[in-house]
Structures are given as structure tokens and as C-alpha cells.
Write a structure and sequence with these properties.
By secondary structure, this protein is an alpha+beta fold. It has helices at 13-28, 46-53, 57-66, 74-81, 85-88, 95-102, 122-129, 132-139, 142-151, 222-239, and strands at 153-162, 165-170, 173-175, 180-182, 186-191, 208-212, 215-219.
Length: 250
């Protein structure tokens, strides 16, 4: 796998919309990406979404790394946010070198010494590149638990829908002083539409969903939910290892 991939001039409309589903929540909160998050909900303007996607320096780096040409190819976008066969069949031995050229000055995390833990998936970015996991290990700060819980892509199941919000069950992260892992299911309120705009056609009780911060990103299949959960489990065991733990290959 080449470390440095060129970006195609023509981007995938469906891939751009998939990117927006997951990138909107932190952008709306002001954590990453360019201002004007509402533009990511313009399903009628995928070209504008594709242009704005380049402003997400973290996510865009992984998409360029994964892509043989189009960083917004739907399979590439899914690989980063959810996980798919692009992660299961590739050698990522050069990932850290690539990220080193893109994350210059990014300090506080553990990514530079990640070695075989490195994976071009959002869970790696959350638990290795961001400083919060290192802070949690060092201080046990409960704020770090909350940020990591919200920032990860997590799975949930819709209980009810009312207007632009829904009640879902999900498993929040729990810190026991040495390990971080999903705890018992709990019900929470999340949004799936904002100001009448959404990239989802709608929600129904029983839907499996992917969540980012307090937002429903997508309705997903059981297989996709399993991939999100398995990749997170792998990363959590790698980032918070016990003496007897061994991180399995992807």
C-alpha cells in the first residue's frame, strides 16, 4: 500500500453525503472542520459538501491514505467511520509515517508510538491521536471519559421518535481505573434532523443506528454495527492494555 495517494478531481456524490452524515455533529459543535456546519446537511449540494470535506484535516488525511484515487469513494468513507474490508485486507505498516507528514505539531496523544496499533479508522484517531485517552490513563479525569464516549462512533437502537429527536439505547463508556469499556445499556435523547434538514429519510423504533456526539449519523445493518463494535473493542484493548491482553489482527 502506497503511503501517499493523490486525490481525484471528481469526488463521489454518495461518498460526500456519507462523509457528511458522520462529520456534521462535531462540526456543528465547533470541534473540527470549517464554519457553517448546516451546509453539510444540504443533500442537494454534494459538490459543496465534497469541497468542505477537505477542511476536516484529521478525517481527510485518513481518507487520502485509504484512497487509490477518490478520497470520497463510498467504500473509503465507510472504512474510516464504520469499517469494512479495506481495513481487513490491507497492510498499514506505513500509516504512522504518512500521518507524521499530516499531523505535524499534533502532540498529547500516543499515535507516534502506536506501532501495530495504528489503523486508518476513527477509533484509532479518537483513542490514540486525541490527547484524552492519555489524559484519562494519567489522571482518571471523568471529563476525558465523557469526551471519548461522545467522540467515538457508537451504536444504538431507536426506542421512539418525536419530531427531530429520538430516544435510543446505547452503551456509554465506563472507566474502572485501568480499563475503558462499554457499560450497561442506557436510554438517551439524540437528534436526527436540524431545522428540518437531515441526511436521513426518517427513523423508526427498532432501527439500528450509528451515533456521533448527540446525533444519529445513519441507519445501519447488524453487520455494520458489529464492525463498529469490534474495531472499538480492538482499539480499547490496545489503548488500555492489561498485562494478559493481546491485540488481535484486524
Amino acid at each position: 500500500m502506497s503511503s501517499f495517494r493523490g486525490s481525484a478531481e471528481v469526488m463521489s456524490d454518495s461518498g460526500a453525503l456519507l462523509f457528511a452524515r458522520y462529520a456534521y455533529p462535531p462540526n456543528e459543535l465547533g470541534y473540527c472542520g470549517p464554519s457553517g456546519a448546516a451546509e453539510l446537511l444540504r443533500a442537494d449540494l454534494p459538490g459543496e459538501i465534497a469541497r468542505r470535506a477537505r477542511g476536516f484535516s484529521g478525517a481527510w488525511a485518513y481518507l487520502e491514505y485509504l484512497s487509490p484515487g477518490d478520497p470520497l469513494d463510498p467504500a473509503v468513507v465507510e472504512a474510516y467511520w464504520v469499517g469494512n474490508d479495506l481495513l481487513a485486507t490491507s497492510d498499514f505498516s506505513d500509516l504512522l509515517g504518512f500521518l507524521g507528514t499530516r499531523f505535524v505539531g499534533q502532540r498529547g496523544g500516543t499515535w507516534e508510538s502506536a506501532g501495530g496499533r495504528a489503523l486508518p479508522h476513527h477509533s484509532f484517531h479518537v483513542f490514540e491521536v486525541y490527547p484524552w485517552a492519555a489524559m484519562l490513563r494519567r489522571t482518571g479525569n471523568p471529563t476525558a471519559v465523557s469526551v471519548l464516549d461522545r467522540c467515538r462512533i457508537r451504536t444504538g437502537k431507536v426506542v421512539s421518535v418525536a419530531g427531530e429527536t429520538a430516544r435510543v439505547t446505547s452503551r456509554p463508556l465506563v472507566w474502572d481505573g485501568s480499563a475503558l469499556a462499554p457499560g450497561p445499556p442506557r436510554e438517551e435523547s439524540v437528534a436526527w434532523s436540524a431545522g428540518g434538514r437531515s441526511l436521513l429519510a426518517g427513523l423508526s423504533p427498532g432501527d439500528l443506528v450509528a451515533l456521533h456526539w448527540d446525533w444519529v449519523c445513519d441507519v445501519i445493518t447488524a453487520a455494520q454495527a458489529g464492525r463498529i463494535e469490534a474495531l472499538e473493542e480492538r482499539q480499547l484493548r490496545a489503548s488500555f492494555p492489561s498485562p494478559e491482553s493481546v491485540v488481535p489482527p484486524v
